[in-house]
Amino acid sequence: MISSMIRRQRSAKIVATLGPASSSEDKIEALFRAGVDVFRLNFSHGTHADHRERFDIIRRIEARNRYPIAIMMDLQGPKLRLGTFAESRVELHAGQRFRFDLDRTPGNNERVCLPHPEIIDAVNVGSELLIDDGKVRVAISERYADRLEVTVVTPGVISDRKGVNVPGAMLPISALTEKDRRDLAFGLEIGADIVAMSFVQRPEDVAEAKGLIGGRAALLSKLEKPAALDRLDEIIALSDMVMVARGDLGVEMPPEDVPVLQRLIVASCRRVGKPVVVATQMLESMIKSPAPTRAEASDVANALYNGADAVMLSAETAAGDWPVEAVQMMDRIARRVQADPGYMEVLNATRTASEETESDAITAAARQTAETIPTAAIITFTTSGKTTRRAARERPCVPIVGVTTTAAIARQLSLTWGVQAVVQADFGDLSDLANRAAAIARDLGLAREGDRIVITTGLPFGQAGSTNVMRIAHA
């Protein structure tokens, strides 16, 4: 799976969502050629047959290009919704009294069903509910065992099955619904590389999902509930990867808080070497326009200056009119940021101190060596991906190659900053590793004969999590 055909000219990675605008093999290949590293299958939409077809297309593209491509399955999670209305919709006015109850009879301009008793149990008088992503806001005036009496704060129209957000409340529900469990079993069966779990609230949610996954895929926790921030470090520690899902996060808290939290989450992930994705509305105007706004370009750039491993496109590629152009634009922004000398200065300034372990000492030394003497690349040999992710946490000034014997690990590394993953057969002694590293660096066009490369690995090879060797070699 060495790629002699394609090598990304940037360290940050691009995630793109597939959908009606990007379901054909030609279109998906065009997205890959434009720069997509990870394809997201959104299980909130589409059938299992739809997702299997796209999965098979991605694997064919991967085989043709000899380049690892990760497939992320994104679980819908426990979306809280209203019931229905007798006339499909009602208009609520400021100051109006309204009722949410458990009666499944179609609603009217006085009441509607809220089929979630756990919401009634979790809120208090004075709490607010947000309807339809915050377009309508109501305050709870009275709370009873079977209903909530509310006063409309922000007026507007609400209609059948609109979403409900409960800011500040820790809801006693699992992050995995029965639908999620069925989808998860299907995704693991066909071979998804990354499982994205929606609406994580607590570390126990992560532990539950990891138990079901059983090591068959990496788990990415989507941070979109303010409650998750109260136990952020615990959630990150249990997760394999993290996403700053700014859409729902921005609904339940003031918009001015979201950039600060984005920076906090990215920094927390970098500190422990967990890949982190920044997502939602990054190039939103490109759903309909062939070019983004200048503010959107700055938003993508700021996520990269924060130190994010990856940035994600959602509706821009799933349903937009310009999916390939959106990826091309994101690729150009990432390459332009990387060309800025200030980019590495920012990453260096925000680098956290290494832990007092052999593995951290080796990976810090590899980065320092690359900065001290002319070095073409850092070549890491890994079984679990940890050696390579440690190298990426250092944000070195040269490309990183993650060499592994497992295609699944290579694909998961597609989400890690600065890494090009390569699959090769079992390795021999350190001399064999050096020879292979030199050949890989030359084949990928990273080094010419005689250039220095830095090699890191753990010996004996195959013992996960023990990076204990660094060697300087020549290509």
Features:
single chain, 475 residues, M1 Pyruvate Kinase, Domain 3, six-stranded mixed β-sheet, 37% helix, elongated
Mean pLDDT: 93
- The rounded distance between the terminal residues' Cα atoms is 20 Å
Secondary structure: helix percent? 25-40%
CATH architecture of the largest domain: Alpha-Beta Barrel
Q: Which of globular, elongated, flat, extended, rod-shaped describes the shape?
A: elongated
Give unreliable regions as ranges. Answer: none
Give an account of the 3D structure.
- It is a single chain.
- With 475 residues, the chain is of the alpha/beta class.
- The chain has three domains: 13-78 and 175-340, Alpha-Beta Barrel (TIM Barrel); 89-165, PK beta-barrel domain-like (M1 Pyruvate Kinase, Domain 3); 358-474, 3-Layer(aba) Sandwich (Pyruvate Kinase, Chain: A, domain 1), CATH 3.40.1380.
- It has 17 helices and 21 strands.
- The protein has helices spanning 25-34, 48-65, 117-122, 178-190, 203-213, 226-229, 232-238, 246-251, 258-272, 294-306, 315-318, 323-339, 341-349, 358-372, 386-393, 407-412, 430-443; strands at 13-18, 38-42, 70-74, 89-92, 97-101, 111-113, 128-131, 136-143, 147-154, 156-159, 164-165, 194-197, 218-223, 241-245, 276-279, 310-313, 378-381, 400-404, 419-423, 452-457, 469-474.
- The strands form four sheets. An eight-stranded parallel beta barrel has the order 1-2-3-12-13-14-15-16, surrounded by five helices. A six-stranded mixed sheet has the order 6-5-9-8-7-11, with no helix packed on it. It has a five-stranded mixed sheet with strand order 19-18-17-20-21, with helices on both faces.
- It is elongated, with a radius of gyration of 24 Å.
- It starts with 12 loop residues before the first strand and ends with a strand.
- The relative contact order is 0.12.
- The mean pLDDT is 93.
